[in-house]
Amino acid sequence: MDKPRIVKDYEKLDEAIQEQIKLNYPYGFDRHLITFKNATGKFVSALPFETDDRYYLIRMSKALAQEIIEEDDDYDDDGNLKKAVKEEYEEKYDDSEDEEFDIADIPDEDLDDDDED
Fold first, then answer.
1. How much is the pTM?
2. CA dihedral 74, 93, 32, 45 (to 10 degrees)
């Protein structure tokens, strides 16, 4: 099944999507832009971003990509996502389910008993 393609301007994206994009592109956007033909046949540059259920093409020129990073407090003066921000977003959007488990959730028959040798 093909994912729906969403073509949108960066500033119109939900904040959660913007944060995930920053995680995906921690060193800026301008080197990752692609060009595609829009519905009217014009060439447009965009930043590709994929989630589990959608494929985004975020419209932006190279100049706009650089401007977004320069004006965003989440990025440092060199255009890199700040370490504290990166860690915060990683924790916020971590999909890993195997980090924590309760041994009480494991059925008794799946546990080894060291006394039975």
1. 0.76
2. -90
